[in-house]
């Protein structure tokens, strides 16, 4: 293994899912739903397979039906207009979109600012692209902290501004944010946009949880802010929005120049992927608003169920405004090392979770935080909550 990748080892998701299987634990670690997405979408995939649509290499940028559906979705929801022929690219999940964007847009030595804690593929992809990551920590307390208005894991805008240097090429943003559940506000996004314009930065924005925002939170795509449309690569995922994480269908929307760049890298990573599933996802994107409302309401109820269980078990719970993850603080349980806690949890009570420290460069800042996924059936969450209560 080369020096660029050596520090990353095995992704925590593989490690923890294997631990769940080997110990027969409830897996609240890796973020995947235990209920598949809509039946009509599955049927659409079966029809495509049977009719021989997509069983051979689909077009490099993605099938026209899907690119049109992605553009229509962005316009309907956010008023963002993209030309399906030149401004939309279908990828092998959001994971490939992130990799291809970074490989295409970074020169060796370019600095990339990412919100810490960050999804684990960011660091590895920045490294593979020869870039340097510059983490800006979302603060649970202190400057920019959530104490004043009850919101946790806030972006400190001064810290973000100070992180920009002459070598900064790109801001890698994620909202709604995995693993903290923070949803960036219009005010924060406006400041990010102003900074990007002022310092002439590109922005890659991972919005895979765009449909999972709760209560008063609103998902605002960064590309909708002034000056951003043509410097922003926006990333979405059918795995997250329609609960088909195994299909690996994701997408990019951006200006023609940026889409062309991302596609240049993408063509040599996978060329294309997910043939028949692309037809099905095109149908999924056209589902009526009721689907998205129900999806949100269902996940919100699950959030409340698991958050309540975790609170009763003695965790400090940071109730997420978005995503299907809850970050907790284990210190009220008399614990301080999330890694050790997560490694012992299966044996102690038959539940698997993720230590947030893996998402930090400043490991000590993430040490007491542990993430639980709530995209699971109600009975599973209830059982997990009752097992966790035995910890106290
Ligand atoms: N970005 C974030 C923030 C994620 O949480 C995930 C999935 N866990 C991805 C990207 C990857 O999405 P996909 O499965 O579509 O590759
Ligand atoms: N995005 C999912 C999570 O954060 C997992 C994706 C993966 O396993 N690579 O848990």
UniProtKB/TrEMBL annotation:
<keyword id="KW-0808">Transferase</keyword>
<dbReference type="InterPro" id="IPR015422">
    <property type="entry name" value="PyrdxlP-dep_Trfase_small"/>
</dbReference>
<keyword id="KW-0663">Pyridoxal phosphate</keyword>
<feature type="domain" description="Aminotransferase class I/classII large">
    <location>
        <begin position="26"/>
        <end position="388"/>
    </location>
</feature>
<dbReference type="InterPro" id="IPR004839">
    <property type="entry name" value="Aminotransferase_I/II_large"/>
</dbReference>
<dbReference type="InterPro" id="IPR051326">
    <property type="entry name" value="Kynurenine-oxoglutarate_AT"/>
</dbReference>
<dbReference type="InterPro" id="IPR015421">
    <property type="entry name" value="PyrdxlP-dep_Trfase_major"/>
</dbReference>
<keyword id="KW-0032">Aminotransferase</keyword>
<dbReference type="Pfam" id="PF00155">
    <property type="entry name" value="Aminotran_1_2"/>
</dbReference>
<dbReference type="InterPro" id="IPR015424">
    <property type="entry name" value="PyrdxlP-dep_Trfase"/>
</dbReference>
<dbReference type="GO" id="GO:0008483">
    <property type="term" value="F:transaminase activity"/>
</dbReference>
<protein>
    <submittedName>
        <fullName>Pyridoxal phosphate-dependent aminotransferase</fullName>
    </submittedName>
</protein>
